[in-house]
Every structure is written in structure tokens, then in C-alpha cells.
């Protein structure tokens, strides 16, 4: 059966850039993405926005339109609304599309699973009305809907961006509760001089904060001890800031304190991972070209460690160059010459990224639950106390704890609780995260009906074209 | 580290053996290369089944089934056991004939625990079954347990009686020196009077170190489980002539098995799935229970399991060494036998004999007597 040279999973900035580069040099490629249009999370609906004026979303967003346009013109077989639920190191990819299962073969695989928001397991975080800043962005970009009078709590550029976007649209915001601890400013200060080389980015960030302050939104800094109020639904947020306890009423609370790689696909493939102590998350082990411990599987973009959209574009192109070399379409010296610019750009971005990572490093008090009844695993409703009881019964390994308590067994397959569990076990065992490890994950990576699975088809590269 | 008995393998057979030995005062060490119930004992379908057993296994399986009924109380720890009965569905008259023949054979041996049921009774127990199905056979004592919980229950009970469970310790070398067995683990050396091989899919390697060759193979039976759905089936379900097996747990999730095999990568301690075969399993499940068409699969997996050519386990003493015993090769139906096998092994180790006839399970039953 004719196979593709390369299949790219995910059409965000990394996947689109990789596809453009590969197509340019004649490789036969397939791009699989869940969306109706390419763009990924960051450029979601950038070419067909429901908003009358996308300028309110900022130039970082609108600039994505050109990339999406270039991708759509590239010679790639783009499977839209393709929900990939299994990627095997035997070069087989299984996906659902229009209620049926398809199997596709390819020589090389590029995974671009992107990032997801780090959960903030504070008391009440699972109440209806509590969402993430990312979901506020999805609502805005996909459906042009907003939540009036919401509280935004946490820290990091994405949080400030969505608040600014709300303000530009004239949507009232109840408060911005910033949890960045004062100590982070001191910790990050030594890294500032090198970060200053990316002055425009720094200025952009500062102007966001200025925009929010000038709008007169209640702005609390150094907040801690956050607690969502309410029994059936969120009705407000309690926290301590400036030495006093505050309570603010709101039916919608958006939480955010940074993003982490979406691990489900790379973990399910059993690729080697390592703990990133700066970003406090697992990331795939990969070389400068994104090549992983399984040579024909590469990973690009935030899914390989948080690099942001610009970094993801560069990483996607680098991955493509290496794959072209592996496919015999590009001699090594040509690959290296073509790669020099992007490698240099990534190196130049690194100090700024390190500064941001340190400045907005989420505190342990917000990363890990500290009230016994707080849920860690939402799907199977496992609380901190239940996990601790399982640990005390001898389940010291994430998988043993999963088998004993069912944490991580639900439909999200540990996307929400995986990192939290690694850190909790690391604390309880008094051992580093590396020694603790992570869940052993299984396909499917999304719920799949028996009917969908039973309609099983093979995709031939020729037929697809 | 010294002990009276060294048990290799921390699955349900090893942990149950440790429990019964420790309870009777023996000092016991269990060596487990990963962690308790990592492979077949922890990831199997959880069926606790007497129905349809091979004749040779029926006495052991019946005794084990009695033990399951009170096991959680006896161990002081929940095994997740629920008695729900089990039904094997007959799709047509040929299946019914198979059942009638088996019934005659069972009656000859004096067994009465399997009961043939009519089309109407089948429908009474399983209202959502495909109306084409003509009947079935049931066993009332059967049910299911939660594999990891049950194995861990044995482990905790064994530990309470003083057994030591050492996880993360693989046996690299094992030899008989004088009156002792010396085992070299990954980090530690162990010495014991007696060794018990409960190493599952790795048991042929341990048997070899003991001195016994055995034609053991391994495979990766696959399973899938759905998200929670409304309760529609109380009994554990199988089929007489088709690859179907499923059960709905109390939380509403439905586990679908049936014996389709994935790829067993024993050298790398892992399995890979064969999705086209799982697609067939999905088709079969929907054929028997059309209500499952829309149910959502949440996870799919496979475990590494050991098989003997006749699908019967090895249970008994080593033939080429003294003070060594085997319990492995359960061929994907050993979970239910765990409780009684623990007792049998303890009897063999402590008294040199068991009240059960174990001839069918001898390790040397495949040795050629004549070339």
C-alpha cells in the first residue's frame, strides 16, 4: 500500500511550518488535525474569525493568518477534523473522521501536540463556572463569546493577554488576581540583562500590564491562599493579598498559571522523557532537530517543551529539514546550512524564555493541592486524601497508584492530574521527579465509540491525493 | 537477605503463596522485578470464573471459588469481588448441542455447578442481548474482582504476617549450593531453603535457572474499557463459540475482552496492540449487544501472559532440583485460581504434598519419553 513520506499530527505553528518546508522539497506528506481549519490553539479561527475586528486580539494572533494561508497552499494532504487517537512506533497512525476509523502508514512521524494549561488545584477548582484562561480564548476566537464580570486569577503572559483582549472589547472584568510571588521578581532579576536583547517582546509584555492598570480593573498582586467560593457553582474567589483577606464575587473565574507540554501522545508512544526543572514539567527528550528516542519520530513546538509560537515555527522548520535528510532528499551539509538561521534564532530566544519561565514560575502552593478534600483527578474524582491513602498502602509508583485508586484512568487519561501526581509522589517519596516517572498511557487518546472502531479503513497515500 | 522461602514473582500466585506461607509461620521474601501485579495479575479482565473450566482444573477452581466468597474478610482487605453470576451465550442450536455434551460430561464427574438456560431465561438476565441468541449456560457463584486490588490485598495480608515484598528486584541468577538456593538480584543477594517460581511470562527463564525446561510461550491478550454508561448487564458475559467476553462494573464502565492477542514484547517489558483485531472485537460486542454501539472506549491495553501448549498451568515441584516449586503458565485464566494456588503451594512447601491431584499440571508433562 502506498505510504506517506511523513505524517504530521497537529496543524499549529510547528506542524504548519514543518509541512510547508517538507512540501517545498517534494515530500509526500499528510497533515492530521482536529480543527476545521489549520491554526492550532494560538491561531484558532484566524482565517475565518467570527469577530468583526480581529485587531483586538493583538498582532501575535493576526500574524498567524499569513502562515495558515501559506500552509493551505502547500502541497500536503490535509485531513481536517481528523481526531488522531493512536500513533504507533510501527509507523501506523489511527484516526477518527466522520464516524469511522482510518489507518495511515508513513515513513516519518512529526508530533506537534502543543501545550495545555497547567491545572491549578485550589479548593473549588472543579466547580462549574471555573475555567481556564485558555478556554476564555477559545470562546473568544471560535465563537466570539465572552463572560462578563469574570475574575482572572494566576500569572503569566497568556493571563494578561486575555484580560487586555477583554478590555479592548469593552467587556467588564471583576478583577485580575495576580499570584506571581514577589520573590519571583528577585529570582528573575539576574536573568534580565540577557533577556533585554529581546527588548520588543519585553516592551510588549509591559504595555499589556499598563493597559490593564490604566483601564482601572481591580488588580491584586502577590495573591496567595486562593479558594473558589460556592457549593453548586462558583460564586466568588477568596484570597490573601497585601496582608489582608479579600472576597470578590463572580460567577465565572478563569484560572491560569502557565502551560506545559501535552504529553498524552508522546507518553503513549513510550518516547523517552525528562523532567524540566525550570519549566516544572515533563518534556520529550529530543535533539536540536526534534528527533526523539525513536529515530523516525520527531516532535516540534510546545509539545517538546514550551517555546512559544515563534519558537514552534522555527522548530517545525528544523524538524522538516532533518526529515528531508532522513528521506534522502537533502544532503547533511545542505540541511545544516539551511538550519543555521533557525538554530540561531532559537538560541537567541532562549534567554528571554528563561527569564519569563523564572518570573512566572508557579508557586508550589498553587501547583499542588494542600487541602485533603481537593480533587486531583477530576475524571475519577480522586482527592488528595484518597491518593495519600493509596500511597500509604504501598502504591508508590504512578501506575500502581492509578491501579489502586483509579486516578488518571478517566477519559482525560491523566492530562489534568499527571504532572500534579508526579510532583506529589516526588514530595512523598523524597525523591526527584525523574525517579517517580509518569503514568503509562494507552490509546485511544480520546473517547471512541465501538461503532467508530468497528468501521476500520486503511488510507492509501495515492488514493488520498 | 535470608528467608525460609524465596518466591519469585509478585503477581497473585506469588502473593497468595506468600500469604499462606507467612500465615503458617514461614519467613518469606517475594522478589518482584517491577512492582506488585505489574503484568497479568494487575491488568487482566478480573473475571472470577468457574464456568467452562477444563475438567482437570475444576476441583482447584471450585475450591478457589469458595475462597473468593469470603476472601475480602479473610484478608482484611477489599479485593473488589462481586458475585454476579456468569453466562456463556449460545448463538445457535450448534452451541446448545456443545453445551448439552459438556453437561453430560460434567454430570459423569459429579459436577453440577453449570446450568443450561433457555432463551427466555437468557433474556431475563440480559434484556439487551441480541434476540437471535438461543440460550446459554450459567454458573451462579461466578463474578469479578478488581485485579490490582485483589493482588494487593494478598500482598498486604502477607506483609501483616511478616512476609517481605521486595519490588524492583529482578533475579539475575539463581543456583542451588549445598542446602541453599542463592539468588542474585539487581542490587541484593538472597538465600533461602526453598524457592517458588511464580514468575508468570518470565517463569520459563526462572525454571531454567532451577533446572527445568518447559515449553512456555507468552502472548498479549487485549482488553478495552468504556466510559461509564447506564447499567444494562449484571452477569459477566461470554459466548460459547465466539471471541466475546465482557462485564459491566459497578461504576458503569464495561470491560470488553475476548482473547484477541496483541504483540508481546517481553524483552522490553511491554505490549503493543493490534487495532484491527480490536475492531473485530468491537464488532462482535455490538453484534451481541446492539446497545453498545454508541458506548465510548476509554482505554485499550494488553498484558503479558504465559501460556502452556495445553492451556493448563504448571503447579507442583521441580523435577530436576530439590526444594523448588512452580506455579505459572495459567494461560489467561489464572486470576480466579490465585487463592487456592497459594494454599496448594504452601502445602507443598511445608508438608511436601497437597490434597489436590496435580498430575495434569506437572512441569515435565511435555518431556519426550522416547525419541
From TrEMBL, chain A:
Keywords: Oxidoreductase
Lineage: Bacteria, Pseudomonadati, Pseudomonadota, Alphaproteobacteria, Rhodobacterales
Protein name, as recorded: FAD-dependent oxidoreductase
Native source species: Ruegeria haliotis
Database matches in Gene3D superfamilies: BFD-like [2Fe-2S]-binding domain, FAD/NAD(P)-binding domain
InterPro entries in the record: BFD-like_2Fe2S-bd_dom_sf (IPR041854), FAD/NAD-bd_sf (IPR036188), FAD/NAD-binding_dom (IPR023753), Metab_Enz_Cyan_OpOx_G3PDH (IPR051691), Opine_Oxase_asu/HCN_bsu (IPR017224)
Start and end residues of each FAD/NAD(P)-binding domain: 4-306
TrEMBL record, chain B:
Positions of the FAD dependent oxidoreductase domain: 4-348
Organism listed in the record: Ruegeria haliotis
Pfam families: DAO
Entries under SUPFAM superfamilies matching the protein: FAD/NAD(P)-binding domain
InterPro entries: FAD-dep_OxRdtase, FAD/NAD-bd_sf
UniProt entry keywords in alphabetical sequence: Oxidoreductase
Protein name, as recorded: FAD-binding oxidoreductase
Signal sequence segment: none
PANTHER family in the cross-refs: FAD-DEPENDENT OXIDOREDUCTASE DOMAIN-CONTAINING PROTEIN 1, SARCOSINE DEHYDROGENASE-RELATED
Amino acid at each position: 500500500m502506498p505510504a506517506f513520506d511523513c505524517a504530521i499530527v497537529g496543524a499549529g505553528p510547528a506542524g504548519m511550518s514543518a509541512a510547508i518546508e517538507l512540501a517545498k522539497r517534494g515530500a509526500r506528506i499528510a497533515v492530521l488535525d482536529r480543527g476545521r481549519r489549520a491554526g492550532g490553539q494560538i491561531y484558532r479561527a484566524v482565517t475565518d474569525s467570527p469577530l468583526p475586528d480581529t485587531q483586538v486580539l493583538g498582532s501575535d494572533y493576526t500574524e498567524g493568518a499569513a502562515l495558515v494561508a501559506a500552509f493551505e497552499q502547500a502541497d500536503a494532504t490535509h485531513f481536517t477534523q481528523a481526531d488522531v487517537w493512536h500513533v504507533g512506533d510501527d509507523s501506523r497512525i489511527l484516526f477518527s473522521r466522520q464516524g469511522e476509523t482510518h489507518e495511515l502508514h508513513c515513513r516519518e512521524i512529526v508530533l506537534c501536540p502543543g501545550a495545555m494549561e497547567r491545572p491549578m488545584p485550589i479548593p473549588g477548582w472543579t466547580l462549574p463556572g471555573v475555567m481556564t484562561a485558555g478556554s476564555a480564548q477559545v470562546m473568544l476566537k471560535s465563537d466570539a463569546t465572552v463572560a462578563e464580570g469574570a475574575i482572572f486569577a494566576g500569572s503569566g503572559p497568556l493571563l494578561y493577554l486575555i484580560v487586555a483582549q477583554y478590555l479592548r472589547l469593552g467587556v467588564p472584568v471583576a478583577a485580575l488576581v495576580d499570584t506571581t510571588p514577589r520573590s519571583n521578581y528577585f529570582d528573575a532579576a539576574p536573568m534580565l540583562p540577557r533577556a533585554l536583547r529581546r527588548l520588543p517582546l519585553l516592551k510588549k509584555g509591559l504595555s499589556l500590564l499598563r493597559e490593564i492598570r490604566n483601564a482601572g480593573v481591580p488588580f491584586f498582586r502577590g495573591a496567595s491562599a486562593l479558594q473558589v467560593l460556592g457549593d453548586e457553582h462558583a460564586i466568588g474567589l477568596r484570597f490573601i493579598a497585601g496582608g489582608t483577606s479579600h472576597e470578590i464575587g463572580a460567577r465565572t473565574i478563569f484560572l491560569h498559571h502557565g502551560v506545559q507540554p501535552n504529553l498524552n501522545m508522546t507518553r503513549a508512544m513510550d518516547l523517552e522523557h525528562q523532567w524540566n526543572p525550570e519549566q516544572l514539567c515533563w518534556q520529550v527528550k529530543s535533539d536540536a532537530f526534534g528527533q526523539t528516542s525513536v529515530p523516525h519520530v520527531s516532535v516540534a513546538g510546545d509539545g517538546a517543551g514550551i517555546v512559544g509560537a515563534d519558537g514552534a515555527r522555527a522548530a517545525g522548520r528544523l524538524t522538516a529539514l532533518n526529515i528531508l535528510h532522513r528521506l534522502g532528499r537533502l544532503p547533511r551539509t545542505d540541511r545544516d546550512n539551511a538550519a543555521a538561521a533557525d538554530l540561531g534564532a532559537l538560541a537567541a530566544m532562549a534567554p528571554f524564555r528563561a527569564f519569563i519561565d523564572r518570573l512566572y514560575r508557579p508557586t508550589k502552593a498553587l501547583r499542588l493541592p494542600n487541602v485533603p478534600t481537593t480533587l486531583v483527578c477530576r475524571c475519577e474524582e480522586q482527592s488528595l486524601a484518597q491518593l495519600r491513602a493509596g500511597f500509604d498502602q504501598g502504591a508508590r509508583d504512578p501506575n500502581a497508584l492509578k491501579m489502586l485508586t483509579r486516578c488518571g484512568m478517566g477519559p482525560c487519561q491523566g492530562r489534568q492530574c499527571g504532572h500534579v501526581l508526579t510532583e506529589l509522589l516526588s514530595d512523598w517519596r523524597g525523591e526527584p521527579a525523574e525517579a517517580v516517572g509518569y503514568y503509562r498511557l494507552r490509546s485511544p487518546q480520546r473517547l471512541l465509540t465501538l461503532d467508530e472502531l468497528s468501521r476500520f479503513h486503511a488510507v492509501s497515500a495515492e488514493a488520498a491525493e | 537477605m535470608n528467608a525460609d522461602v524465596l518466591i519469585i514473582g509478585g503477581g497473585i500466585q506469588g502473593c497468595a503463596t506468600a500469604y499462606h506461607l507467612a500465615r503458617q509461620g514461614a519467613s518469606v521474601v517475594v522478589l518482584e522485578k517491577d512492582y506488585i501485579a505489574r503484568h497479568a495479575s494487575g491488568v487482566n479482565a478480573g473475571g472470577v470464573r468457574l464456568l467452562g473450566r477444563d475438567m482437570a482444573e475444576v476441583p482447584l477452581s471450585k475450591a478457589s471459588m469458595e475462597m473468593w466468597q469470603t476472601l475480602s474478610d479473610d484478608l482484611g482487605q477489599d479485593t473488589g469481588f462481586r458475585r454476579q453470576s456468569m453466562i456463556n451465550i449460545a448463538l445457535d442450536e450448534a452451541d446448545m448441542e456443545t453445551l448439552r455434551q459438556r453437561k453430560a460430561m460434567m454430570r459423569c464427574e459429579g459436577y453440577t455447578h453449570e446450568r443450561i438456560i433457555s432463551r427466555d431465561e437468557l433474556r431475563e438476565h440480559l434484556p439487551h442481548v441480541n434476540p437471535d441468541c438461543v440460550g446459554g449456560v450459567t454458573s451462579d457463584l461466578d463474578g469479578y474482582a478488581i485485579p490490582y486490588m485483589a493482588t494487593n490485598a494478598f500482598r498486604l495480608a502477607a506483609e501483616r504476617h511478616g512476609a517481605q515484598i521486595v519490588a524492583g528486584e529482578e533475579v539475575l541468577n539463581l543456583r542451588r549450593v549445598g542446602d541453599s538456593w542463592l539468588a542474585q538480584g539487581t542490587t541484593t543477594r538472597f538465600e533461602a531453603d526453598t524457592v517458588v517460581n511464580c514468575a508468570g511470562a518470565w517463569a520459563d527463564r526462572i525454571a531454567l535457572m532451577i533446572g527445568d525446561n518447559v515449553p512456555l510461550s507468552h502472548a498479549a491478550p487485549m482488553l478495552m474499557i468504556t466510559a461509564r454508561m447506564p447499567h444494562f448487564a449484571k452477569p459477566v458475559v461470554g459466548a460459547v463459540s465466539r471471541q466475546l467476553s465482557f462485564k459491566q462494573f459497578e461504576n458503569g464502565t464495561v470491560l470488553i475482552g475476548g482473547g484477541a492477542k496483541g504483540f508481546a514484547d517481553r524483552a522490553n517489558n511491554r505490549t503493543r496492540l493490534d487495532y484491527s483485531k480490536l475492531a473485530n472485537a468491537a464488532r462482535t460486542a455490538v453484534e451481541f449487544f446492539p446497545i453498545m454501539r454508541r458506548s465510548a472506549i476509554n482505554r485499550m491495553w494488553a498484558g503479558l501472559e504465559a501460556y502452556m501448549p495445553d492451556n493448563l498451568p504448571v503447579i507442583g515441584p521441580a523435577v530436576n532440583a530439590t526444594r523448588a516449586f512452580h506455579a505459572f503458565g495459567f494461560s489467561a485464566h489464572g486470576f480466579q485460581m490465585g487463592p487456592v494456588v497459594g494454599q496448594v503451594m504452601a502445602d507443598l512447601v511445608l508438608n511436601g504434598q497437597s490434597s489436590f491431584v496435580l498430575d495434569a499440571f506437572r512441569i515435565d508433562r511435555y518431556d519426550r519419553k522416547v525419541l
